[in-house]
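Lab notebook, bench 4. Still working through the backlog of constructs that have no structural model yet. Next entry is a single chain of 66 residues. Request: give me the structure tokens for it.
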Amino acid sequence: MKKNSPLFIDIGQGLFIMIDLLKIPTWANLDRPKKAKKGTLGFNSQTNSLEYWSGSVWFAAAMNEG
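Model written out:
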């Protein structure tokens, strides 16, 4: 991924969302928010994945360079 390039997330059925140049919080496994609110999104630099807090578990989507 190029620095300062927009990020696109596949939301299914051929649709994508452009996140543009938003600042996404970054953490490692032990640094995840302790009291995350449902819907919290961040990047785990330890696992190289986007993570989403469902309210009970962290879901991860691995990022791979294209």
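Notes after review: The CA atoms of residues 5 and 21 lie 7 Å apart. The mean pLDDT is 84. Flag for follow-up if needed.
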